[in-house]
Amino acid sequence: MNTVLIIGAGGVGHVVANKCAQMADTFHNIHLASRTVAKCDAIATDVKSRTGRSIITHAIDADDIEATVALINSVKPQLLINVALPYQDLNLMEACLKTGVNYLDTANYEPHDVAKFEYSWQWAYQERFQQAGLYALLGSGFDPGVTNVYTAWALKHCFDEIHTLDIIDVNGGDHGKPFATNFNPEINIREVTAECRHWENGAFIHTPPMSQHQSFTCPDGVGTYEIYRMYHEELESLVKHIPTIRRAQFWMSFSPNYLKHLEVLQNVGMTRIDPVIYNGMEIIPLQFLKAVLPNPGDLGKSTKGQTCIGNIISGVKDGKRKAVYIYNICDHESCFREVGSQAISYTTGVPAAIGAKLILEGKWSGNGVFNMEQNDPDPFMEELNKRGLPWNCIELTPEQAEHFVVF
Ligand code: NDP
């Protein structure tokens, strides 16, 4: 009997719980724990109404390692799925090591007090997971996650060597609110206001946030959007594990309206992460901002449009230059009909559930800490087609790849 413990009852946790419940042959017992048990109970009610399956809920502060160890010991899962926040990654990895449980997350560790995210902290657990005979899968969302698997699949099936990688994340959805973020506002704003880094000729090049942008027309009528170059964590693992990559960049679409609000919020100091004194109390402006912004988990009802996330990859095959575009298009309203969430939570939660499935079925296994591209991409790509995130791979000319022309 397989038992999983999901930590985090936000937008992504909602999708993971529903998707695991849909796959009854693999996920026999599902437990869901978060700081606020009422949020877990609401998800359990939703899952019951959609799938008829029961989820057992718990309250946990995942920053309390001993309490988490006690919870794990009572639930006895084979796998812990961390869809809380990046701040909890290391504590949850510690708890897994203490209890002998495999680990999966969707975002790399980030300390509270510095807006800096990198794999070094989690890669440092490599030896301990190896010695414990445990498997930790890092970044099993869409980006990171599916984008890493797309790259590994392209290397396996399309190229002898990959030379350039451009990951393009377009959200063509409209939630009808003046300003909202599609996932946790604090994490989202820390990410998009960070200095940009991209990989070129063996080093990360630093440029000011949002300083490089261009227009991108998505395939299949999704539309044309302005995409901005920014740093994203999968660049770090992909250039490490695929050392032939000469240039790797990550691009994300932002509407003029989003950028206008973000600029004002930055200018007035609302995105600061250092404490300020207000009425004799210390508050972190960005955390306060999160409290007044719409909850991303509630945006599903009003969001229309599609996401289009994919990789433009170029390199050589049999001595000839070659390029491909691998992508998924996901419709916000279809996601809401299926699981009650918008496409950003959906495109993150489905790959987390697929990663968990492959671990529980023994198709992805090993001792140590693994990024997605270190595993065989084929079973993951097959599951994407079956579980709601079908993909397409089209061949481009190298010139089309260079100019981001994908059809
Ligand atoms: P939400 O803010 O909606 O949910 C986070 C949940 O974690 C909340 O239920 C919160 O509980 C819980 N939580 C926070 N701190 C703790 C704690 N100390 N102990 C226990 N539970 C805690 O975030 P999302 O669902 O939008 O995002 C979840 C994760 O997914 C994030 O790490 C995010 O970075 C990642 N992500 C990854 C993507 C990818 O493609 N790879 C894309 C989008 C998101 P409470 O509400 O009670 O405070």
- Number of helix segments? 15
By secondary-structure content and strand pairing, the structural class works out as alpha/beta
CATH superfamily of the largest domain: Dihydrodipicolinate Reductase, domain 2
Strand content: 25-35%
> Would you identify the regions where 5 or more consecutive residues have pLDDT less than 50?
none
Give the total of domains: 2
Instruction: Enumerate the distinct ligands.
Output: NADPH dihydro-nicotinamide-adenine-dinucleotide phosphate
Helix content: 25-40%
What is the approximate shape? globular
Proper CATH architecture of the largest domain = 2-Layer Sandwich
Structure in words:
- By secondary structure, the chain is an alpha/beta fold.
- It has two domains: 3-138, Rossmann fold, CATH 3.40.50.720; 146-340 and 390-402, Dihydrodipicolinate Reductase, domain 2 (2-Layer Sandwich), CATH 3.30.360.10.
- It has 15 helices and 18 strands.
- The strands form three sheets. Strands 7, 8, 9, 10, 11, 12, 15, 16 and 18 form a nine-stranded mixed sheet that branches.
- Strand 15 and strand 16 (320-331) form a beta hairpin.
- Helix 1 packs parallel to helix 2 (37-51).
- The radius of gyration is 20 Å and the shape is globular.
- The N and C termini lie far apart (47 Å).
- 49% of the residues are buried.
- The model has no long low-confidence stretch (mean pLDDT 96).
- The structure holds NADPH dihydro-nicotinamide-adenine-dinucleotide phosphate.
- The site of NADPH dihydro-nicotinamide-adenine-dinucleotide phosphate (NDP) has 35 residues, from helix 1 and helix 13.
